Amino acid sequence: MGPTGSIATVTDRRTVSVTASASVSAAPDLAVIALGVDVTRPALADATAAARAGAARVFASLGELGIAPADLQTSSLSIHPVDDYRDGVPVRRGYGVRHTVSVRVREIDRVDAVIAAAVAGAGDDVTLDGVQFALADPLPVEDRARELACADAARTAAHLARLHGASLGPLRSVSDGAGSSPMPVFARTAAYDAQVQPGSVEATVTVSVVFDLSFDDSP
Q1: Same structural domain for residues 186 and 129?
Q2: 3-state secondary structure string, the chain?
Q3: Are residues 96 and 47 in the same domain?
Q4: Angle between helices 111-122 and 44-64 (to 10 degrees)
Q5: CATH assignment of the domain containing 146
Q6: Cβ-contact 164, 7 below 8 angstroms
Q7: What pTM was computed for the model?
Q8: In which residue ranges of the chain is pLDDT below 50?
Q9: What's the CA gap between 86 and 91, in Å, rounded?
Q10: What pLDDT, on the 0 to 100 scale, is given for residue 14?
Q11: Residue 123 resides in a domain
């Protein structure tokens, strides 16, 4: 995204204000997979037991791959009635239990193996709610985007000053506005036996600067 700029007058001072954004892409080095088990049984106790057993098998399969317990976190756990409708009348068929886990994979090339392990552990009860790619340490990429945004803002401010017959004076203020943490630019997942493509992630930073303007007639 390019910068936008305008010349304005603030009280008795003549200034130029510029807002600029910059984006930087990088290859992800972290994947977060949302997967788990979803079971339905006639009795709630049976559904709960089946979900617990399925989740335990998934955890065991992931442990065999070397996924550390610290990289496994329950993200949701729900119990809900399951009804069928006969002539518009609900008839209780059973109960569903869904246990979803967030799995952090620190080696991108193992994402497919993690998904396959979950399928092997839970079979037809497995759920896959998505794969997100990220940076374990996004700060260097965000810093680079900020540097580019600041340079673009200063360049645009100087250009605007020249267009108005002025020169750029001292920096009056600078603020780091709304930006975005690294987000996937392209991430696709299909069936568990298909290769997941991590693509890249992108960080965007927006800055606003205000410079004094110096004119020949300035006191």
Answers
A1: no
A2: CCCEEEEEEECCEEEEEEEEEEEEEECCCEEEEEEEEEEEECCHHHHHHHHHHHHHHHHHHHHHCCCCHHHEEEEEEEEEEEEEEECCEEEEEEEEEEEEEEEEECCHHHHHHHHHHHHHHHHHHEEEEEEEEECCCCHHHHHHHHHHHHHHHHHHHHHHHHHCCCEEEEEEEEEECCCEEEEECCCECCCCCCCCECCCEEEEEEEEEEEEEECCCCC
A3: yes
A4: 140
A5: 3.30.110.170
A6: yes
A7: 0.70
A8: 1-12, 185-193
A9: 7
A10: 84
A11: yes
Q: Are 213 and 16 in contact (CB under 8 A)?
A: yes
pLDDT given for residue 135 in this prediction: 92
Which CA distances in Å does 22 have to 50, 158, 178, 200?
50, 18, 12, 16
219 within some domain: no
Which residues constitute the domain of residue 143? 4-27+137-214
